[in-house]
## 1
Amino acid sequence: MGNKLNGCSIESWYLYIVETKLGHWYTGITTDVKRRVAQHESGKGAKNLRGKGPLKLLFEYPVADKSTAAKLEWQVKQLTRVQKERFVASKGATANDAIKSLMVLTASS
């Protein structure tokens, strides 16, 4: 699924947010959003989501590498529910400075 650089495979990473049938939001990172959501729905993903499907994918954002993806995930998880709702509705445009800096790094990579 990744790109090639000097003959080596480079995987693209994604930040994603899903909503459970009960309206709870879950934020994660992966190299394949479609596969990961399917894993969550089949009970093979995060324990936090087992039995809480069907899931609705609310947001996904490409990230340059795993390190940046993990940092971005942590920053998004620090947001309140209202802040996350604004973040998703604006497709990331209403992010705080820390999140914007990680998103800019991704866009320029």
Note: The beta strands are 3-5, 8-10, 13-19, 25-30, 56-63.
## 2
Amino acid sequence: MSKHKSLKKYREQLGISQLDMSKILQISQSAVSQIENGKIYGKGFVKYLKYLVKNNIDINDYFKD
């Protein structure tokens, strides 16, 4: 599984759709999709990771090579 697919997996563990995640993070649904597909990084990406951590999702696997 690619790193980016794992972001989708983490979101799905929380039972949150892309649309819901976009509303929570106050970014577009397109941005959520692009984050999950590894196309963009930046503030939205950081918000995404912070939200996962805040909700007790262990993201350490994301950073392993």
Note: Residues 19 and 46 are 18 Å apart (CA to CA).
## 3
Amino acid sequence: MSPAQFTIDQSTVDFGEVEVSTQKEIKLTVTNTGEEDLVLKDYTFSGANASELSDLTGIKIFKNLKQCEFNI
């Protein structure tokens, strides 16, 4: 089997201007182009207010999954 390899449909995410007390979601799609399970770990978010995304960190294992969408 070929090792897991992934692509993300966007290399950066720009939320633009978001008014106070409102939310804005952006969808990211992660695709595994390999045959083995995809394991995401030791990744970080950067940029202004990146600490607010801390609940999305940790080890993520995608078994038998070729594509996954995240709303951030």
Note: DSSP finds no helices and five strands in the chain.
